[in-house]
Amino acid sequence: xxxGSTTDDAVLRVDDLHVNYRSGVSDVxxxxxxxxxxxxxxxxxxxxESGSGKSSIALAMLGLIERPSQVRGSVRLxxxxxxxxxxxxxxxxxxxxxxxxxxxxxxxxxxxxxIGAQIVEAIKAHRxxxxxxxxxxxxxxxxxxxxxxxxxxRYRDYPHEYSGGMRQRVAIAMAIANDPAVLIAxxxxxxxxxxxxxxxxxxxxxxxxxxxxxxVLITHNLGLVAEYCERVMxxxxxxxxxxxxxxxxxxxPEHPYTAAxxxxxxxxxxxxxxxxxxxxxxxxNLRVEPQGCSFAPRCTARLRLPDPQICSTVMPPLVVLGEQxxxxxxxxxxxxSRHG
Amino acid sequence: xxxxxxxxLLGALAAVIGASILAFILMRIIPGDPARLQLGPxxxxxxxxxxxREMGLDQPMWKQYWIYMTDFIQGDWGRSFKFGQRVFPLxxxxxxxxxxxxxxxxxxxxxxxxxxxVLTTYRRNKPLEKVANGTAHIGLGTPPFWIxxxxxxxxxxxxxxxxxxxxxDAEVAAPNKITGFYTIDFLLAGDIRGFLDxxxxxxxxxxxxxxxxxxxxxxxxxxxxxxxxxxxxxxxxRMKGVGRLRAFVRHAxxxxxxxxxxxxxxLFGQMLGGSVLIxxxxxxxxxxxxxxxxxxxQDFSVVQAFILISALMYVVISALIDVLYGVIDPRLRxxxxxx
Lengths: 340, 339
Fold this sequence. Notes:
The structure holds two protein chains of two kinds.
Chain A: E1 10-21, E2 28-39, E3 43-47, H1 54-61, E4 70-77, E5 80-81, H2 87-93, E6 98-101, H3 115-124, H4 132-145, H5 151-154, H6 164-176, E7 182-186, H7 194-211, E8 214-219, H8 222-228, E9 231-236, E10 239-245, H9 246-251, H10 256-263, E11 318-321, E12 324-327, H11 329-339
Parallel strand pairs in A: 3-8, 3-9, 6-7, 7-8
Antiparallel strand pairs in A: 1-2, 1-4, 4-5, 9-10, 10-12, 11-12
Helix pairs in contact in A: 3-4, 3-6, 4-6, 6-7
Chain B: H1 2-29, H2 34-39, H3 45-55, H4 61-73, E1 79-80, E2 85-86, H5 87-122, H6 126-141, H7 144-158, H8 182-188, H9 192-228, H10 232-239, H11 244-257, H12 261-272, H13 276-281, H14 287-296, H15 300-328
């Protein structure tokens, strides 16, 4: 396995990405210097709590953060810079090179337009050469590809005639309509029941493999990441606090936040009278710039440091350990002692 | 679908009959004696009794109603003693004037409100927003009568851009009566000068009549648009690579338009029914003035005809709105209940 940081094989490269939402008196600094690369065909999981900045990263990559909110940093797709690109250039990328599956299938479709028309819209935005019949055929084929039964008939149906799972299949069909190199799935199964979740995830995985697309799976479900992704990025307070090979990170988390997340996953067979583990405290206030590590106020592991105060005063260093990296003072000390 | 239409039709019929009964009873329980009003205080008892018999007022009320309704359906709407004219042709020309003005005002209000709402939400254009909101405030907060007066003084008297009261200039003869709408009748007669004059005369009263409903529609439509603008399906359309404007027009506007439909229909119905003050101000021979004087003088036939026709218009408009809902919103199609 190669390291994820060489320029050649990265389809998508994000460097020092910031998202600043303008709202009221103070800005919400939702994404705070995020950098990562996604290789062709790679499946990357992005995990974190609600409000950690996961979805903002996705929107920023597509240039869909509207003024007056600001995006800084660089997003490069196959070497082409997307931040600061014109609307016209971005429209050529959206849905063509990068597909996005929105998190809530119930509200992702226009209730007044037939399913077919909405899929056709996705194809047509990038294929002006197709006539009406060809567009129709392509849309029906897409419905079939996402396992919607009777695609010929269902093509004419309206969103309210589809179940939640079926709507999510339609959302997937729209996202993969133009064989994008990168598919971003933003909480694709959160709104669905467990059995539907599994079938949607299987479908996604199959399509990604078939189309050789890279997939960025944004979720708070660690189980999905463990099962469907090769690499994971843990987001906290708008930063990637830990990233690396999924098996390794989940087996040996270096960041206390990752460890706490893993500890709070309910296990099957857990006794019902056993309290569920959770992370005490609240997610950081993104209107305030932190002095040190934004997880410090909730971190119990830092007490193992000789000087725990450092966590809330000095930004933690990025500690790289082969495929795995974490931003943590404690990890720095521990790895230093293990390897030093 | 058949059942849907049938229940709608039955409901509509019930509404019209109900309105007619109510109008009939109300006109009859108002204190006062129409025979006395007509003949004056010096009339003899004999003459009064004679007139009452002639008017059918000695019959029981249900019988009066029955006679009135059967005559009404056959086109005999009675006679107005106030105007000394048969009611059918009278109301026909009066309604034509009011409806022509009402439609013009509604179209102006609707188009203006829609355009302003779309333009101020698509891009948050501050100056335009201020102008539109200001106009809406004036429209909602000022009596139309006063606005009409100001328009007449300023635009007609001072600037002379639009003509003063009346449906036509003094030297322009009314067109042959075909529809009763001067604009259409002039067009049918091929008289372009007359047509332009009729249009010219429609503008100021239509603005006066349409400003308040237009302001209301603007605020409603705009609120809905702002609401829909945050919808995920709009974002999803953008993620497909659809341009901002196209996504807005195709997805936001129809969805925002839907909840304003009912209000539009009600306002439209109201505007067709004429307005006494505006008709008075612009010397417009509409139904409003006729009905007010009809109520004052217990001119039964005029008031009843007005109420019946108004009820009919409302019923037709709300049926159209129901159909329109079905056309726009697939979720309502094929449901017997309607809304």
